[in-house]
């Protein structure tokens, strides 16, 4: 009984240590301290090697350090652990573009878009891959799709403040027309 308590406590400690290292790595990554973040993710992966998110963040740090081949290996490990990890498919596509493997990049972007068709950044990277493959018409369609996704939030932001006014005017218009 005492032995099982010690084992579970060790597991709890490992989980907490993993979480601290992963979170610290994320903070460092966000702040642009890629080498330091990489160390945290490597330590976290050593503790819990089946956590796709640490592999993903490690790949992100490596990509930011321009070690694209290593980053690619990390994204592929993420996809072994979680084949539906949309961000890993998208980032894999980006890294493949840097490695000048455009056909594979296109395939990876297409896979990412299956999981999230509203990811404008992936549409852009898909366009880049198509452009590099000299498929210009398709590339511009991808760029246009990305712009369409981005335009909607901008329009909503522009019209959001005046929306209550428009609604009030719409209610008053029938009253104005009746008065004529």
TrEMBL record:
The keyword Endoplasmic reticulum appears for this protein: no
TPR repeat start and end residues: 18-51, 52-85, 86-119, 120-153
Family matches, as Pfam families: TPR_16, TPR_2
Keyword terms: Repeat, TPR repeat
SMART domains, alphabetized: TPR
Coiled-coil annotated residue ranges, if any: none
Name of protein: Tetratricopeptide repeat protein
Organism from which the protein derives: Floridaenema aerugineum BLCC-F46
High-level lineage: Bacteria, Bacillati, Cyanobacteriota, Cyanophyceae, Oscillatoriophycideae
